[in-house]
Write a structure and sequence with these properties.
This protein is mainly alpha-helical. The chain is built from 13 helices and no strands. The N terminus and C terminus are likely disordered.
Length: about 350
């Protein structure tokens, strides 16, 4: 009898996990305006640096022979010359920016805690600021599962912006501790101590791979908890971000299998997107009939990654709401932004 109950419980949380994942996919699919919005924000933030780098490359190439060779492939000697003569932004234009190599380079930078180039710091901070503003409206829209007006969406963004700024400060401290303290201890102190007398490279590699797994697991846990802190703040209309963070910790602790299982399921979707991009990404030699083909493939990958990012939030929101009394529950009333002071005065007079 006990085995039957345990089996039923396992079956139940798996069903909840799978249902939340597909519910998240459905919520994002039915909110195309969100996809368009986050894609445009990504383009707007990236455009200035892209255009600056484009002008620098075009100016350096000019009408040279290297320019003709670059039309169909890569002129490595010119590339090294360009990087040597460029400013800090130009020096970031390295071979690993081509195709799927960019994805691998970014992953390696994260797991090796490589400092960001100062030329990119301002852009990344600006992008995170945009997300901090938009995420309140995004979560509110995904939680309500119905269309909202632009005024209501941006009202929700403004309502939660300063709360999420406080939460971002806590997240910044946690991630700083992970990348500065934990990473240094794992890969400098512990790794060197364990591998000091080892002579077999395979064993050394396996130890480093294990440490990467530990580091990635801690990163995933932090990301998971802060995701649910944002969700609790919106769904329950919490004003205290410390309370939202503690509530997220309690929720993950009460539902470890489902929350981590859902995170892994979303991670598998990300891996599927990465595999698709790896199979279609452009190489250093351009063998397509049009230069637009690699560009469209790259933009399709950006859209797919943004879709998976929204699916993370949507599926986690769906699972959190499924554990409440009502699956569509949102504590805050639907935000309304009056069109004018006169409209607000009329509204107040009728209360």
């Amino acid at each position: 009898m006990a085995d039957l109950v345990a089996g039923s419980a396992t079956h139940l949380w798996v069903l909840h996990l799978i249902h939340a994942f597909f519910d998240g996919l459905r919520r994002v699919w039915r909110a195309p305006t969100l996809m368009v919005g986050v894609y445009l924000i990504t383009l707007i933030v990236a455009a200035p640096l892209t255009l600056t780098l484009h002008d620098a490359i075009a100016s350096h190439l000019g009408e040279s022979v290297s320019a003709e060779e670059m039309v169909t492939g890569v002129h490595w000697d010119w590339w090294e010359e360009f990087r040597a003569q460029s400013d800090e932004l130009g020096s970031t234009f390295i071979p690993s920016v081509i195709g799927f190599a960019a994805v691998l380079s970014n992953l390696a930078s994260i797991f090796d805690a490589v400092p960001l180039p100062s030329a990119l710091v301002a852009v990344i901070v600006l992008y995170l600021a945009f997300w901090s503003f938009l995420i309140g409206g995004i979560l509110d829209r995904l939680a309500r599962q119905r269309r909202v007006t632009n005024a209501a969406f941006f009202s929700a963004c403004g309502t939660y912006f300063f709360r999420f700024c406080r939460l971002a400060g806590m997240a910044g401290f946690v991630y700083w501790a992970i990348f500065s303290v934990l990473h240094g201890w794992l890969f400098e102190d512990l790794y060197e101590a364990v591998t000091r007398n080892l002579t077999v490279e395979r064993t050394t590699f396996l130890i480093r791979l294990t440490l990467y797994g530990v580091f990635g697991g801690v990163l995933a846990l932090a990301n998971l908890v802060f995701d649910y802190a944002k969700i609790r703040a919106v769904v329950e209309d919490r004003h205290s971000m410390i309370g939202a963070l503690l509530g997220a910790l309690r929720f993950v602790r009460r539902h470890p299998k489902a929350t981590f299982g859902l995170y892994l399921l979303n991670g598998m979707l990300v891996v599927l997107v990465l595999v698709g991009y790896a199979l279609t990404a452009p190489l250093t030699e351009i063998n397509t009939p049009s230069i637009w083909t690699p560009l469209l493939i790259g933009q399709a990958y950006v859209v797919a990654r943004l879709f998976t990012k929204l699916t993370f939030y949507a599926s986690q929101t769906a699972y959190f709401q499924s554990q409440l009394a009502h699956a569509g529950y949102v504590a805050a009333p639907r935000p309304v932004w009056p069109e004018s002071p006169a409209a607000e005065a009329i509204t107040n007079s009728t209360l």
